[in-house]
Amino acid sequence: MTAALGSMPRLAAGTLAALLSDYTFRTVALGAAIIGLMSGVVGCFSVLRREALLADGASHAALPGVVAAYLITGSKDAAVLLAGAAASAVLAAAATVLTARRTRIKFESALAVAMSVFFGLGLALMSYAQRLPGASKAGLARFIYGEASSIVMRDVCASAALALMLTALVCVFFRQFKLAAFDPEYAASAGLRSGAAGGALTAMTVAVTVLGIQAVGAVLMSALLIAPAVAARQWTRSLAGMTALAAVFGAVSGVAGTAYSSLRDGVPTGPAIVVTASVIAGVSLLAAPGRGIAAKLVRRRRLRRRVLAANVSAPEGFDRTPPDASTTTEQSARPAAPPDGEGSPNAPQNERIIPAAPPDGEKHAAASAPDEDGKGGGSDAGGA
Amino acid sequence: MNAAAEVRHLTVSYGEKPVLVDVSLTIPRGSFAAIVGPNGAGKTTLMKTMLGLVKPLAGEVRIPARGRRGAVGYVPQSESIDRDFPISAYEVALMGRYASLGWFRRPGKADKSAAEECLRRVGMEKFASRQIGELSGGQQQRVFLARALAQDAEIYFLDEPLKGVDAVSERAIISILRGLCAEGKTVVMVHHDLRTVRDYFDWVSIINLGVVASGAVEDVFCERNIDRAYSRRAAEAAV
After folding, report:
1. At B95, is the secondary structure helix, strand, or coil?
2. Cβ–Cβ below 8 Å for A354 and B230
3. Is A312 inside any structural domain?
4. Per-residue DSSP letters for A228-279?
């Protein structure tokens, strides 16, 4: 927490202390941190499974559910409203998946339609609900842009419970999730039920999305899923590392965003959190060692200098790993490989040609040994 | 005949146009079988349907080995995976052991050394810690082959494993696959290079929408059948 706040050097120490001693701030920041953490974890799998768009659709589609739940029950309890949000998010996701499967419409198109229709419906219902007496106090508008200050201790406990469950699931079934994200077809072919793991991942994404819209808002929630994952990918080479790092980035964004918005009146929490996450992602894309844009430029320049220095005509300094260093045992045999297509088992293997295999015995006649003068007469197919 | 895989009256269609029509063929146990045919003939679809990844419109596939988890090995085309996935070659090979682990058990020492051994067999041990995306297409193919080997399957399906592979690697892969057949395992492979069919395989299925011919290489791999398979599309277009 302090580390995140430390990244804002202009903050006077006094303000910082005041902020930290503030009960409301601590509650809200904790809530936002937990949501950020879960978003980071789940977001990694969404991004790697190319389902990030689905999360975006789910968060937008949650809006009419929130308003409908309020209109039907008259309750402004967060649990009730979020249940409505979950219902409409799942409905939209199901509609999208069914449309994509049953018609020729592509998944993205179906998602775009479902998302806009649901979000539009949400806005229409919202403006209707706002005119009802007492509705403005229900604070429905907070679900559009998010309002972390509406988080109370009970919400924090609920999301902490979900976060624990989710973390435990991811730890225990990490292997299954990894396989389901990496190569679901292989998993299915080997008789592993990757469908179950994939389904669980999607369900977790929807759950986190819905939970997050209270703090971050329907419009921006998906950014909190995607940005930490994208940032984390830059710094690590393993899925476990990426997941852990994304969790940290998400939590830091939650705390820093909340701090910023409570220090500046009028800045909503959702955008502040998302901007923080995006800054982390931007810095990671630029500056990460290895994969970062800066590192790539530096490497390229260095290499270029070396190649130029080593005299363009004979670039020995160009230390390139041979493409097939592994097969060293056979490397020696390589140059002397096929002596003119004779009986060699592997004739040059580029394009396929139709062999003119003679009907009887004789094996390799077909493989068109270079027939310079073309006196062989019989063109490619007619040799027999 | 002792069949490792049997396909009966299989018809597969993604949209309106069928991709495979009434395909019936048998692949005997212990054989090294090629599936050949022109582009768009339905070779990959046939393989995916046999693996249960594509649901047929009609017909059935019988693979007795499917009773045991992990008894069917699959080496997909390397383009089918996300090259940016944060995973090393070794981790991919280790995935071959997952099928035998069940839900909760973590990979043990035996699993890890099996994965390493399989990487060695395909000549990729030096690249074990490389990210999958840093490998060339041919190297990725070999890593996927290592994963299938680690599985210790009964029947192996390979979708064009020689695509983009140089001559040395091709020879190495073929000798590994021959070794599997010698152990009594069955290898089914989508293959593109008609010139090597006679050298490599003992069984071949020539397809184009339907089965043009299927059987022992010396019986069915003749010019007439190949011409029929490869000119059918052209003939159709002319009509």
Report:
1. helix
2. yes
3. no
4. HHHHHHTT-SSHHHHHHHHHHHHHHHHHHHHHHHHHSTT--HHHHHHHHHHH
B142 burial level (CB within 10 Å; 0-12, 13-18, 19+): buried
Contact list, B157 vs chain A (CB under 8 Å): 189
**Phi and psi dihedrals of A212, rounded to 5?**
-75, -20
- Smallest CA-to-CA distance from A109 within A50, A57, A43, A144 is with A57
Q: Would the pLDDT of A42 be above 90?
A: yes
Q: Do B51 and A367 touch (CB under 8 A)?
A: no
Which residue of chain B has the CA closest to A330? B168
Please say whether the beta carbons of A214 and A146 come within 8 A.
Answer: yes
Q: Which CATH architecture has domain B1-68+155-164+188-239?
A: 3-Layer(aba) Sandwich (3.40)
| CATH number of residue A239's parent domain | 1.10.3470.10
Say whether pLDDT at B155 is over 90: yes
**Residues of A with Cβ-Cβ distance to B73 under 8 angstroms:** 189-190
CA–CA separation, A338 and A350 (whole Å): 14
Question: Considering its fold, how many domains does chain A have in total?
Answer: 1
pLDDT digits (tens, 9 = 90+) for A8-25: 555 566 777 777 778 888
pLDDT of residue B82: 84
Range of weakest confidence among A324-328, B75-79, B167-171:
A324-328
CB B14 within 8 A of CB B180: no
The CATH number of the structural domain formed by B71-153 is 3.40.50.300
Average pLDDT over residues A203-214: 88
Q: Closest Cα partner for A88 from A125, A38, A51, A136?
A: A125
A208 token code pair: 């986190």
Question: Is this prediction's ipTM beyond 0.85?
Answer: yes
Q: Is residue A185 part of a domain?
A: yes
- Does the beta-carbon distance from A182 to B88 stay under 8 Å? no
Residue A51 included in any domain: yes
* Chain A: closest CA distance from residue B2 (Å): 22
Asked if B4 contacts B154 with a C-beta cutoff of 8 angstroms, the reply is yes
